[in-house]
Amino acid sequence: MAWLVGEAAGIFVLRERAEVLQRADLFAGMCVLVGAVAALAMFLQNATFTHSGLRLTNRLRHQYFSAILRQEVGFFDKASNRVGAVCARLSGDAAEVQAATGLRLGLVLQGVSSMLIGVVMAFCYGWKLTLVGLAILPLMFASIFLERLVSQSAQRLERAAMEDATAVATEAIVSIRTVQSLGVERVFLQRFSEALGRAQAAVAPGMWWRGLVLGLDLYVPFMIFCSVMVYGAILVAREGFAYNNVMLSVFLHLKYF
């Protein structure tokens, strides 16, 4: 699609009306065709990777629950292995595996393949512009890596902090008749509120760093886009570089980088 948009941008420098209309109709039809193929490909990608992720999650949960049932009684006497904490890990850990290996895996493969194709095409149409974009690319990789580290750290802290709150809620709900007969609803509510407060206090400091890194992650692609656009204008003015090739390189950088 980036190639089509870049080539279509060259229509605006044509002088013949008939040629402009002919090429506009051609690229419009190609866009419709590419859109239909992309829609079918995305449907198959999402369906297959989501299905595989669900099957993997079900298998992990079955094995995890089977391993829990084989534990000795002393295993459940530990504070970290209370009913609520075990149930939270049973549902949460498997869901995280599904998020990492299901649809996200397909998106990662799509991004890597698109980037490789974009780099090759960009080199073919304008190697000077591509080198400018690649010079800033390590900064984008660094921002993505930092964002992933901060995000994973925040998720670990949140999961560990929420286990206490989940354990309190599970114990109260499982023994709801006993809780109501003893009239200790306020006690469990207070414990649950305190656990939520500790979870919020543990996660809140990392949100500032996560926001800063995420902002950097969003800023770097626009830096690449701006650099390629400015240098492309210089090449057009001084070296007679084709206008449509500049736009093609710009859209390739914007789409795939």
Distance between the termini: 14 Å
Largest sheet: none
As for the number of domains, it is 1
Q: For this structure, what is the CATH homologous superfamily?
A: ABC transporter type 1, transmembrane domain
Helix fraction bin: over 70%
Order of helices and strands: HHHHHHHH
CATH topology: ABC transporter transmembrane region fold
Protein name: Multidrug resistance protein homolog 49-like isoform X2
GO cellular component, one term: membrane
InterPro entries: ABC1_TM_dom, ABC1_TM_sf, Type_1_exporter
GO molecular function, one term: ABC-type transporter activity
Write a structural description.
It is found in: Membrane. This is Multidrug resistance protein homolog 49-like isoform X2. InterPro entries: ABC1_TM_dom, ABC1_TM_sf, Type_1_exporter. Residues 1-257 form the ABC transmembrane type-1 domain. Its main location: membrane. The chain has 257 residues and is mainly alpha-helical. It has one domain (2-256): Up-down Bundle (ABC transporter transmembrane region fold), CATH 1.20.1560. The chain is built from 8 helices and no strands. The protein has helices at 2-9, 17-69, 83-101, 103-125, 127-174, 176-182, 185-239, 243-256. The mean pLDDT is 77.
Summarize the structure.
The chain is an all-alpha fold. 88% of the residues lie in helices and 0% in strands.
Descriptive key words:
single chain, 257 residues, mainly alpha, ABC transporter transmembrane region fold, 88% helix
List the helices and strands and how they pair.
Blueprint: H1 2-9, H2 17-69, H3 83-101, H4 103-125, H5 127-174, H6 176-182, H7 185-239, H8 243-256
Helix pairs in contact: 1-2, 1-8, 2-3, 2-4, 3-4, 3-5, 4-5, 4-8, 5-7, 7-8
Domain ABC transmembrane type-1: 1-257
Main location: membrane
Transmembrane segments: 26-44, 105-123, 129-150, 218-237
